[in-house]
């Protein structure tokens, strides 16, 4: 990824967390399946990949609706998912290649983290890998009103690192996050296929 000199064109770099910088997606998918087993519903962890970048509440609502689970259990589902997710990511999470990009450009360009994760979970992961120090700004699910694919997460990141949106490059692994970056008027690097996506003209 670092061989791509185009990264130098940008004034600021913004990174998604789950599935982009840190490999947590299998742990989160497993946690959703464990929640379903606990409540007696066949939750499919693959839904997480369809909704990558969405906050836990949105995923919980969709999971419950698909399996006709009473929505009055929403808070219990979210709480249990966070607990299982925390246990699994602490045990299994690893860094992904984009983490090398973060390290490489640290102190060379302003860096931000824009995630749909709940701040305490993001903090656990950043502490695990001693990664918080690399980011000038961290924006989590609680920090914005409209989540991916809305542009708010990445626009807030750009604001905090004081870089114009069109001068930012977003690193993402999820369709919702990619759309959020493009909606923010930013170019996006899809880490799944190592492809640069240009913002709409």
Task: Outline the structure in words.
The protein has 201 residues and is an alpha/beta fold. The protein has helices at 25-39, 47-50, 56-66, 74-92, 98-105, 119-128, 152-161, 175-183, and strands spanning 12-15, 22-23, 94-95, 111-114, 137-139, 168-172, 187-190, 195-197. A six-stranded mixed beta sheet has the order 5-4-1-6-7-8, sandwiched between helices. A hairpin with a 4-residue loop joins strand 7 and strand 8 (195-197).
> What composes the largest sheet?
6 strands, mixed
The sequence of SSEs as H and E is EEHHHHEHEHEHEHEE
Which class of secondary structure composition applies to the elements?
Answer: alpha/beta
> What spatial form do the alpha-carbon principal axes imply?
globular
Distance between the termini: 25 Å
Unreliable residue runs: none
Helix content bin = 40-55%
Discrete helix count: 8
Radius of gyration: 17 Å
Blueprint (SSEs and pairs):
Elements: E1 12-15, E2 22-23, H1 25-39, H2 47-50, H3 56-66, H4 74-92, E3 94-95, H5 98-105, E4 111-114, H6 119-128, E5 137-139, H7 152-161, E6 168-172, H8 175-183, E7 187-190, E8 195-197
Parallel strand pairs: 1-4, 1-6, 4-5, 6-7
Antiparallel strand pairs: 2-3, 7-8
Helix pairs in contact: 1-4, 3-4, 4-6
Give a brief rundown of this model.
With 201 residues, the protein is α/β, with parallel strands linked by helices. Helix content is 43%, strand content 13%.
């Amino acid at each position: 990824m670092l061989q791509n000199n185009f990264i130098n064109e940008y004034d600021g770099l913004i990174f998604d967390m789950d599935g982009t910088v840190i490999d947590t997606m299998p742990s989160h998918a497993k946690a959703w399946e464990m929640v379903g087993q606990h409540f007696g519903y066949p939750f499919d962890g693959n839904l997480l990949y369809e909704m990558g970048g969405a906050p836990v509440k949105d995923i919980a609502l969709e999971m419950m609706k698909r399996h006709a689970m009473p929505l009055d259990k929403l808070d219990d589902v979210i709480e249990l998912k966070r607990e299982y997710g925390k246990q699994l990511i602490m045990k299994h999470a690893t860094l992904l290649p984009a983490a090398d990009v973060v390290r490489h450009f640290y102190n060379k360009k302003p860096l931000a983290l824009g995630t749909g994760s709940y701040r305490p979970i993001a903090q656990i992961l950043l502490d695990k890998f001693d990664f918080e120090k690399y980011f000038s700004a961290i924006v989590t699910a609680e920090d914005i009103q409209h989540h991916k694919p809305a542009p708010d997460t990445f626009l807030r990141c750009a604001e905090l690192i004081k870089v114009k949106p069109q001068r930012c490059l977003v690193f993402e692994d999820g369709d919702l996050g990619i759309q959020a970056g493009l909606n923010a008027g930013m170019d996006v690097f899809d880490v799944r296929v190592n492809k640069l996506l240009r913002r709409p003209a």
